[in-house]
Amino acid sequence: MGIFQKRSPDNPLAALQPPPPEREPQPVSSTPPPPFLRDNEVRTSIGADAVINGKLAFTTPTRVEGKLKGELRCTQLLIIGSTAVVEGWVKADELRVEGLVRGEISETRKVEICPQGKLIGKVSSRLLIIRDGGYFEGQCAVGPTSSVTASLGAEADTASG
Fold first, then answer.
1. What whole-number distance in Å separates Cα of residue 6 and Cα of residue 26?
2. Is residue 56 within 8 Å of 74, Cβ to Cβ?
3. What does the alpha-carbon distance between residue 116 and residue 131 come to, in Å, rounded to a whole number?
4. pLDDT tens across 60-100, in order?
């Protein structure tokens, strides 16, 4: 038992032992991410327990699993995960819907609705992919110069004239 109590105040040899070495803080390296990380790998993630109201903007591939009400922008890949509920306006270079999006998606190059994914609202995109099991309800404009609001205005002009 004396072996385990070398530094106790009752141990007469405690004063003769040197104090334990102090750890020096390690400098934080600002090195770039390792080469095995590809540009489209998710680097930012919002967990399933998050509830956010407001505007969010990201410049790295991002995955959302929580609840968001407001605006969501991403300059790269944006994944709306299976537990996510997003209500509002979404803009991304590439959008993958695995959960629920209710609102407007605009200025997006590619929208993919995965199996079990649901998209309710307006979509303006160059490419729209709906996988088996995916659900879409709303209005869409697909093509190189797509705009839901522009196509809706053209339909109204045609209908009235």
1. 29
2. no
3. 9
4. 899 999 999 999 999 999 999 999 999 999 999 999 999 99
- Domain holding 97, by residue range, is 44-160
CA distances from 117 to 63, 83, 96, 154 (A): 14, 10, 9, 30
Q: Quick check: is 115 in a domain?
A: yes
| Within a domain: 140 | yes
Tell whether 35 is covered by a domain: no
- Altogether, the residues listed in the chain come to a count of 161
Residue 129 domain flag: yes
How many structural domains does the chain have?
A: 1
Between CA 50 and CA 35 the distance in angstroms is 30
pLDDT digits (tens, 9 = 90+) for 96-132: 999 999 999 998 999 999 999 999 999 999 999 999 9
d(CA 150, CA 77): 26
Model-wide pTM > 0.70: no
pLDDT mean across residues, the chain:
79
How many Å apart are CA 86 and CA 104, to the nearest integer? 10
Rounded-to-integer distance, Cα 78 and Cα 87, Å: 15
Angle value at C-alpha 67, between 66 and 73, nearest 5 degrees: 90
